[in-house]
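[job 4471] stage=fold_predict status=RUNNING
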Amino acid sequence: MERRKFIKRSIFMAGSMVLGNALMTACKNVIPESESLANDFINVVSSGTGQKILVLMSAGTKEGNTDRLTNAWIDGAVAAGHSVVKANIGNVRLDGCRGCGVCQRNGNRCVVNDSMQQLYPIFAECDTIVMASPIYFWTITAKLKSFIERLYAISVNDKYPAKNTVLLMTAGDDGEHTFDHAQNYWKIVSGVLGNKSIATYFAGGCKGCEADNRYIDPKHLENAYNLGRNL
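[job 4471] inference complete, writing structure tokens
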């Protein structure tokens, strides 16, 4: 029953985006198109009998290196029989926490009306959350950081829901310290979510927008698939 609820809610969230966009354009204060919620923001990938997984892909480029790494992991998880919902948050409006504190006085409801409102219920019901990010400036993307900040709204006495956590990252560099800052931050994030980090994967040496063609070594895709398959 819980699994059906997870998938049903996810399908509802994805399907309601079209109606939501129509309502927003009818409002006086219209959100610019560049900040509106994309119709394919939330995708129900599979309904299995295993864990309920929410995957956040935070790169701004679809079918880029991070997206490919993420999809390889998802393919493995689907093969293992898990339920997977993927959210592409790189190009939707997702603000950082404002520090207003209203959520702590109104029943843990965030007052910022953006993409995060669609993610809260799916996050609440998932067993595992996968965060995927490129390194743009030594750490995770601003959109993924915003998601993490906004979890404050559902905290109670600075306590957060316990989730299995997975981090997937790509970078152009492949140095000894390329992912150090992101790893240190991830220890804090996974720690407040119950200290249940079950996997991290760092794919260095990728070619990004500065190259003629984006490129990620196939070994990274294979490794990511196996991580998802062995969840």
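[job 4471] summary: Confidence is low (pLDDT under 50) at residues 16-38.
[job 4471] exit 0
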